[in-house]
Amino acid sequence: MIPAAGKSTDVSRERGGEEEGFAPAERDWRRSALAASGDAQVSLWASAETAREERFGKRIFVRGVIEVANFCRQNCSYCGMRRENGALRRFRLAREIIRRVIGESLPPSVTDLNFQAGEDPVALKELVLPVIEEIAKEKRLGISVCLGTVDHRLYDELRQAGARGYIIKLETGDPEQYRLLQCPGTLERRLEAIRYLVRTGWCVSSGLIHGLPNQTLDQLVGTLDLLRSLSLSGCSVSPFIPGEGTPLSSEKTADLEQTLNVVAVLRLSSPRWVIPAVSALNLCDSSGYVRALRAGANLATINLTPSEWRGDYQLYRRNRCIMTEERILQAIEQAGCQPSLESWIAASSSFPPSASLVPASRSSP
Ligand code: SF4
C-alpha cells in the first residue's frame, strides 16, 4: 500500500537526524510502488506530489549548471565522456569564459550555481577552485560542484573556497553491477567519499540510474536502501539512455513511467530530500521533465554551458535536450508550481544536521 503523504516512513524513522535500518514491510511497499501501473501509479505520483508540497510548498529550486570540462579519467560504460571514447573532442573552458557566463548571462531565476566536469583534477584545481573563490565573495548564490571522487584535501579546499553542495552519484548500490559497469573507482571508495563529505558539513546529493541493462528489482531496492542510509540532502534518478560511443550504445532506453515511479518512491521515502528533475527524462519523452515535477521532484536545472561546447559534454549523445531558462520556467508553470526564491543549499542547511549512521551490515559493500 502507498503511504499517505505526511505519513511517510522517512519521518517516522528519523531520530535526531539519524536514520535507522529498514523494516521488511517498507521494502515490500517500495517493491509494489516501483512496479505500479494504472490507477495505482496515478495515485503513487499524486501522493508524492502532495508529500513534496507538504514539505516544500509549490516552490521549485532553480540552479544553473556550467559544464566546465569534459576530460575524464574514469571509464563508466554508460557515459559518452568515458576516457576510452576517442571520438570525443575534449575541452576545458577558459576561466574568462566561465566568468563571463556568470557575470553576464546568469538568468534572474537562478539561486544556485553548479560546476560540473568529468573526473578531472586539473579542471578542479585550475578552473573551478579559483572561480569559486571569486564568486563566493561577490554573489549570493548557493554553490555546488559535481567533480567526482577526489582526494579529501581537494574537497576541503573547495569548501574553503565557498562551495557547499557536492553532487556525487552512486548510479547503482549493487557492488557487482557497479564493478561490471565500470562505475568510478570502487563502490567502497565512492561511499567513503560520500561519508567524508557528509561528515565535513557538505550538503550531499547522490543519485541512481534506473533501467540499466539487466537491472533487477532487488538491485534497485538495495540501491534505494543504501542511498537512504547516507544522510544525504538530495538524490536524483536518471533514466538509462544508451550513450553514443559507449559499450552500451545498443541497449534499450529506460521506461519513462517506471522511472517516474522511482522519483515518487524517492519523495515518499525521504520527503525532505531535494530531488532534481533531470533533462534526460525528456529524451525518453518530451513530457518527462514536467511529469517528474508532478511526481515529487523539486529542483530544475538551467544549462549555462556556452552553446559551442554543449555538444561535447556528451553524457549520452551529441544531440542533447538543453534546458534553457525559458523551458525551465515553462515546465515549472506546467507543473502548477513557481520558482523558489531560496537556494536549495540554504534550504537543506536549515534541516537538522544529520550524522551518518550506516547499518553495520552495509559498511563494507
Ligand atoms: S559518468 Fe562521470 S565519471 Fe563516469 S565517465 Fe562519465 S563523466 Fe566520467
CATH superfamily: Aldolase class I
Helicity level: 40-55%
Low-confidence stretches: 8-20, 352-365
Please work out how many helical segments DSSP would assign.
15
Task: Classify the oligomer.
Answer: single chain
What structural class do the secondary elements suggest?
alpha/beta
User: What would you call the shape?
Assistant: globular
The total beta strand count reads 8
Please give the domain count: 1
Largest sheet: 8 strands, parallel
CATH fold descriptor? TIM Barrel
Mean pLDDT across all amino acids: 89
Q: Provide the β-strand percentage band.
A: 5-15%
CATH architecture: Alpha-Beta Barrel
SSE series: HHHEHEHEHEHHEHEHHHEHHEH
Q: Could you tell me the radius of gyration in angstroms? A: 19 Å
Q: State the name of the first-level CATH class.
A: Alpha Beta
**Termini separation:** 30 Å
The ligands found in this model are: iron/sulfur cluster
